[in-house]
Amino acid sequence: MDFTFTEEQQAVVEAASALFADVTPDGVPSPALTPGAVAEDFDRALWSRLADADLLGLLVDAEHGGVGLDPIALCLVLRESAKVLARVPLLESSAAASAVQTYGSAELKRRVLPRAAHGQLVLTVAASGRTGHDPAELAVTAQRDGDDWLLDGLQTAVPWAHNADLVVLPARTPAGRTVITLVPRVHEGLTLAEQYSTSGERLGQLRLEAVRVAASDVIEADGAWDRLRDLLATGTCALALGLGERVLRMTGEYTSKREQFGHPVATFQAVAVQAADRYIDLRAMEATLWQAAWRVSTAVDSALPVAGDVAVAKIWASDGVRRVVQTAQHLHGGFGADTDYPLHRYHAWAKQLELALGPAAAHEEALGDLLAAHALS
Fold first, then answer.
1. Which of 58, 89, 99, 282 is the most buried (most CB within 10 A)?
2. Under 8 Å CB-to-CB from 207, ≥6 apart: which residues?
3. Phi and psi for 345 in degrees, rounded to 5?
4. Residue 299 to residue 177: CA distance in whole angstroms
């Protein structure tokens, strides 16, 4: 078996690393000192640079102006973006474009994909449901009305909702099927309220009251929402991994320079053991991430469905990123709380990622249910 990345995937990492090298994590006000949102919009200049580098169309086929790679390539770029806390809707827009690419009609692909691949059309996804804890596909109902669909319901904590052009959201039909709808941010019957994340990101609460959507903007294919949800979760795990790796590197650099009793604190056994534990967390996060990304990319048959591998990745990412930043704060001492130092920003982002992933215990329960339902040979 070959566990190395392909030449194309390695080239994507090199391009992303070079692009993000000029990004500083303190480009916006500190979330610890700023009430509400730290920025009205995402980083449009960085977004344009991502478009110029062809990193916005990684999952879009070449015939629609994209690169035609797989979710593994996207996760590699997301990993690099998290190291600098890049404030762009790369995950949401790419995942939504992938859903259109895989399940959309030819006419929908022509309208959406070329513009999305070049950054001219920004997509986001409503995946948190009514409360952030219930399934997103149950938060909105979709009912046929002639040639159109009528949507009613509420979606909370939608990332980039105030700045995206289209919101991709799941909805449940009276027959119990889940469809994916593409709704313009400004649309009759849609009300958008402000919410804020721990990282200072401006989120949106979407209230839909008899929102009319044309059938051409609805994806009815079975399994479309399941794959989009798994891709979003896997991408979030990639963000957690990249953030954790950067935080552990910051911690190593600091403890190597900080001296007590005439020696760098990194040489003390208690410090080294804690750092080693967090390194193990990161390697487990990495292994489970690539397993999940590979399953999402290939959809190969296995004893467990793709959701099982995604659940394992979420278990490690949710708990792992929290442990990494908590240990980093501890080993930095009071310096870690200094708002002139970027560690507190990473802590805020890590908490947001942990909340987005959900508690590890819930994923362990879901994994248990999958194991009970599928016999392992």
1. 58
2. 154, 190, 191, 192, 193
3. -70, -45
4. 21
